[in-house]
């Protein structure tokens, strides 16, 4: 069964610094991979997705992620953190879209002024 | 276009009481999901509907949880009786078709507190 592991339950960065949130996946078939963001007391919003096209995926709010099959990774990055980026971020995987999304435990991003 | 709508947003009940959550998916979305999100955890699938048919309910605790999706649109998730461990956020999501893009659209969730 597919699964994702998010390294670090809490990441803290300074405003303007690089954001790097780590996600490693396990899947027996080519995966579809997703990053969602959840602001306090809100539902999840899609940031970006990988569905077997370009390995570097650009999403909303300046975020991007790179699919690396050799490392089974799909890390999320943003060159310069903004205060409004503070939220919970979830990585999720589906087996080629044929199985429901399986989510990681999430990483809480704090941005320090 | 309206997003996924859930109600109530917050519910506080005493243990052994029943509770129900309602979800209205995005218009035209055939697939509807109920996810459970415990504090500090990622969402976990409870049940998936394709139109009005429950096609994946293997993670739904059927002794106390039930769900329905009449007419393939709105859905209700019920817990009876509620236990302390049911305190969590219940998220509803919908997608246009299962397995096409995989993208889910989520509602804001219903936060349940069982005292």
Please explain how this structure is put together.
- The complex is a heterodimer of chains A (113) and B (115).
- By secondary structure, chain A is mainly β.
- Chain A has no helices and eleven strands.
- The termini of chain A are far apart.
- By secondary structure, chain B is mainly β.
- Chain B is globular, with a radius of gyration of 13 Å.
- At the A-B interface, strand 4, strand 5, strand 9 and strand 10 of A face strand 5 and strand 10 of B.
Break the fold down into its secondary structure elements and pairings.
The complex is a heterodimer of chains A (113) and B (115).
Chain A: E1 3-7, E2 10-14, E3 19-26, E4 31-38, E5 44-50, E6 56-58, E7 64-68, E8 73-78, E9 87-95, E10 102-103, E11 107-112
Chain B: E1 5-7, E2 10-13, E3 19-24, E4 31-37, E5 44-50, E6 53-56, E7 65-68, E8 75-79, E9 88-95, E10 105-106, E11 110-114
Parallel strand pairs in B: 2-11
Antiparallel strand pairs in B: 1-3, 3-8, 4-5, 4-9, 5-6, 7-8, 9-10, 9-11
List keywords for this structure.
heterodimer; A: 113 residues; mainly beta; six-stranded mixed beta sheet; globular; B: 115 residues; seven-stranded mixed beta sheet; four-stranded antiparallel beta sheet; 0% helix
Short description:
Chain A has 113 residues and is mostly beta strands.
Round the Cα radius of gyration of chain B to an integer and report it: 13 Å
Topology, number of strands of chain B: 11
The helix-strand sequence of chain A is: EEEEEEEEEEE
> What is the percentage of strand-forming residues of chain A?
over 45%
Radius of gyration of chain A, in Å, reads 13 Å
Mean pLDDT of chain B: 92
User: How many angstroms does the end-to-end distance of chain B come to?
Assistant: 37 Å
Which segments of chain A are poorly predicted (pLDDT under 50) over 5 or more consecutive residues? none
Order of helices and strands of chain B: EEEEEEEEEEE
User: Could you say which structural class the secondary elements and strand pairing of chain B correspond to?
Assistant: mainly beta
Helix percentage range of chain A: under 10%
Poorly predicted residue ranges of chain B: none
Shape of chain A: globular
The rough form of chain B would be described as globular
Strand content of chain B: over 45%
Tally of contiguous helical segments of chain B: 0
């Amino acid at each position: 069964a597919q699964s994702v592991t998010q390294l670090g339950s809490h990441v803290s960065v300074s405003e303007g610094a690089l954001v790097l949130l780590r996600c490693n996946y396990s899947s027996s078939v080519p995966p579809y991979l997703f990053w969602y963001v959840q602001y306090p007391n809100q539902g999840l919003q899609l940031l970006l997705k990988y569905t077997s096209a370009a390995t570097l995926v650009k999403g909303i709010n300046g975020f991007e992620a790179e699919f690396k099959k050799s490392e089974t990774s799909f890390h999320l990055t943003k060159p310069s953190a903004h205060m409004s980026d503070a939220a919970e971020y979830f990585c999720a995987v589906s087996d080629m879209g044929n199985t429901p999304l399986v989510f990681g435990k999430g990483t809480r991003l704090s941005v320090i002024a | 276009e309206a997003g996924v709508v859930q109600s109530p947003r917050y519910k506080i009940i005493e243990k052994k009481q029943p509770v129900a959550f309602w979800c209205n998916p995005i218009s035209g979305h055939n697939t509807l999901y109920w996810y459970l999100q415990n504090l500090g955890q990622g969402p976990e699938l409870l049940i998936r509907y394709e139109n009005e048919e429950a096609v994946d309910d293997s993670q739904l605790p059927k002794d106390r949880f039930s769900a329905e999706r009449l007419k393939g649109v709105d859905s209700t998730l019920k817990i009876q009786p509620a236990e302390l461990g049911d305190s969590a956020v219940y998220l509803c999501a919908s997608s246009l078709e299962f397995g096409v893009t995989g993208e889910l659209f989520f509602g804001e969730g219903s936060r349940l507190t069982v005292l």
